[in-house]
Amino acid sequence: MHVTIKRETDTPAYMQIFEQIRRQILSGELLSGFRLPPERKLAESLGVNRTTVVNAYRKLKAEGLIGSQVGRGTVVLSYPQEDLNSGTGNMQEPVWNQVFSQYSNGFDSCIVKDLLTLASRKDVISFATGIASPETGPIQALAGIEHEIVEKKNYRALLHTPTEGFSSLREAVCGLMQKRGVSCQWDETMLLSGSQQGIDLAARIMIDPGDVVVVEEPSFFPAVQAFKTMGARIMGIPIDDRGMRVDVLEQLLHRYRPKLIYTIPTFHNPSGTEMELERRRQLVELAYKYRVLIIEDDAYGDLCYEGRALPALKSLDHDGYVVYLSTFSKTVYSGLRLGWMVAHKEVVKKFAAAKQVMDLHSSSLSQWIVERFIASGGLDAHIPKVCREYRIKRDTMYDALSKYAPADLIWNRPRGGYYIWCKLPPGISAAKLISKAAERKVVFVPGSPFFSSGQGDDFLRLNFTFAPRKDVDEGVQRLCEAMKELLDNSDHQEIGPDLEINPIV
Amino acid sequence: MHVTIKRETDTPAYMQIFEQIRRQILSGELLSGFRLPPERKLAESLGVNRTTVVNAYRKLKAEGLIGSQVGRGTVVLSYPQEDLNSGTGNMQEPVWNQVFSQYSNGFDSCIVKDLLTLASRKDVISFATGIASPETGPIQALAGIEHEIVEKKNYRALLHTPTEGFSSLREAVCGLMQKRGVSCQWDETMLLSGSQQGIDLAARIMIDPGDVVVVEEPSFFPAVQAFKTMGARIMGIPIDDRGMRVDVLEQLLHRYRPKLIYTIPTFHNPSGTEMELERRRQLVELAYKYRVLIIEDDAYGDLCYEGRALPALKSLDHDGYVVYLSTFSKTVYSGLRLGWMVAHKEVVKKFAAAKQVMDLHSSSLSQWIVERFIASGGLDAHIPKVCREYRIKRDTMYDALSKYAPADLIWNRPRGGYYIWCKLPPGISAAKLISKAAERKVVFVPGSPFFSSGQGDDFLRLNFTFAPRKDVDEGVQRLCEAMKELLDNSDHQEIGPDLEINPIV
């Protein structure tokens, strides 16, 4: 056995002793049965305190590497001779359920993935996806980029950025936030690889297993899934046509002291509702009172088709309780994978530290394109154009529903966002409607994934932004025919009283 | 109290009862003291089994919402009247240390971040970063993209891709893998937002708190940090000039049954070493024998300056035990944030499910640029050019060290990759050298962050790819002057015997 102590390092002497002996045991230099020198003796020879050696031996014992034997002192132990598979000749795949972590079990296979696969077929009219219409994309955002990058050798667009993003783009984000009523500084912002990353970061940075997270019922299910995978206990608050039922929330805050409230106050996904101003004020007050942070998901705040959107929750928050998330996916291009957050500096700092380990930073090229598009005034000019187009599509879908809907179908007319939310007539379920609709080549997302309680099978989310204008009327007609067929075939035996509170109609 | 049972949903009847009563209590419809109907009576009126109501009441009791009172039956409880801060008038910031999760504490502030800030100053010669030289970037990869996207309306580059990436790019990745000796199918690959994301995903998908992860000592510290933040116990295996000490590894595998082995077998970061072929074979055999997965980080495999790189571990694995990660950051542009993985389909499936929640997918534009660059033969033509340039830089740095180094400085001459690894003369520490070097406007990364044991302060990692050719000699001269100054000032009292195993010289 050979041990030396280095004085000029930060490693404590006991750790140095521990590591050297451990290494010699594991490498086979010290065989099982080897007698270690008594603690006092080794301490003397190394010129250290006896406690130092005692601590090193204790750590070796804790790892099962050495042990005390009567009459022999401290010896190297043999390692347990367990049965091992022989290793050669008989290879096999890993046992997959032993390979993956607890956390990984949170990712359920999701009906929505199959729907999106179906929705990508060319002959299918899709009301399923939550994505922008390809033809309304601001292709001019890319005009001239090649000249600037290739000819002017603008390597900035291709090299690393800080984890938080280009500081010039963070400044530009502050400008965007003013339109949502928010005053912020560049160091209170951070660019994200889509706003989904912001939700995932919030879950990782803020949730310990067992923490309660409050969500609207229904809510954007990938957010709920992100919180669940970190071990959160999800509690749903119903919404009505004025947004989250803040009166119900207070009782829950008092009883359960949640860690986070996740909300989409503006043009809610899936229901299209807006939280009214008074409830927004109450919500922020409650956050202060119960000292609970709010994640405000504002993906749709810029997409208001009548008048102006209500101010963001973040604009009402002066003490750092709201973490604001938004994205360029709905107004520029989703494939750029670029979103942003605005929060208290302490939160930005923590999020950046975690993001650095996750993906270092978001695509520099995406950041550069978006920054240039904002600076040129392109984004400001583009948003009203998109709103005009989506307003027409919303009206087309709304009118088509009025024309074709069976009796007892209920739907809303959201002032902005991407979705019309429908409640099916009693007696038909969204699950059954999916296959009938698929036969007619039209797809939608059923309500149930949006409910944490497993309810919602009597709801549909219809996206009106993706399908070409000319297909919207046709798609709604096909969908309504599918409903009518189901209603005609229904023997009415299944229909019972339905007196539950409706989250939204 | 009003409760109804819906038959046509998946929600069990007891959950329906529980949720309806809970909602009514929280919304204040049922006040504290309200007497719930006896279980039998409610069961009869709803037409359900008594056990159903018993289970609903039990769940309400567990949440502290109702309780049994002698002589009164089951009643709604008042909620605990705790002290609350008054809420208005006296706003305060959140108590930040209560806001963040256990997990978030894993992100230590890191000396390296400050170094990189220093390194980004124009008047400083940087050997610190692990990034490509801006002027060797393949700017031609972008030539013509605007024409193809804007004029040909190629929206594909701007819209969503599947989480795993464009299937055509996944096919192209299979072609790249053949050069590393690996045969794979497109569905065994996935695009990543940089290879760092692959490491983070591996940590999340495979590590439960307390799991042992084996890493080389030294190793790439952001990887170690990703494993630590998921609660892994890190065990370091020393390396020598033939790579990881596989003999030491087997003892450790037997004793501790690790969950993962993380290795950079080819042009190791930070030490530049290559794992010899025999050890690669042994390592894969050990993975089979002990049924432990290997994460092979092959960021530098394409950057070989003499002869050919050894085959990837993945090429020796026929049973799905190796998860291979690589990146386009070192050969194309780091700002594109694009890497890839190759693994057994089961692993790809799990990684994709987790990636979907993290960032949906990697930048479509980055994917499209890289796919086009590969398909045009651009990448194949570019890699030899980069290798020629970096070989010259490596030789320049090596020669400069030979010219200027103080006695007893030891360094290596790696056959590929990005780094020369130096061991300082006894008596000077890398921590002290940082400030002396900074005075002379040259920066490097000290060895200690790469060691999980806190050792390594006698090592330096010198990157030779980033600094312009003309600065490499000058930078090494300045660095060696700083060493000499420290050696002259050293009173030699600190110098003790140094007989520890050197991980690598």
Written account of the structure:
Two copies of one chain form a homodimer. Chain A has 505 residues and is α/β, with parallel strands linked by helices. Chain A folds into three domains: 13-76, Orthogonal Bundle (Arc Repressor Mutant, subunit A), CATH 1.10.10.10; 106-132 and 381-489, Aspartate Aminotransferase, domain 1 (Alpha-Beta Complex), CATH 3.90.1150; 139-377, Aspartate Aminotransferase, domain 2 (3-Layer(aba) Sandwich). Chain A is built from 17 helices and 16 strands. Chain A has helices spanning 13-26, 39-46, 50-62, 96-99, 111-119, 145-151, 167-178, 195-206, 221-229, 246-256, 277-290, 313-316, 345-359, 364-375, 378-404, 430-439, 469-489, and strands at 66-69, 73-76, 125-126, 189-192, 212-217, 233-240, 243-244, 260-263, 293-297, 322-327, 339-342, 410-411, 419-423, 442-443, 445-446, 459-463. In chain A, helix 16 (430-439) crosses helix 17 (469-489). The first copy, chain A, is elongated. At the A-B interface, helix 1, helix 4, helix 6, helix 8 and helix 9 of A face helix 1, helix 4, helix 6, helix 8 and helix 9 of B. Chains A, B: Residues 11-79 form the HTH gntR-type domain. Chains A, B: It comes from Formimonas warabiya. Chains A, B: This is Transcriptional regulator.
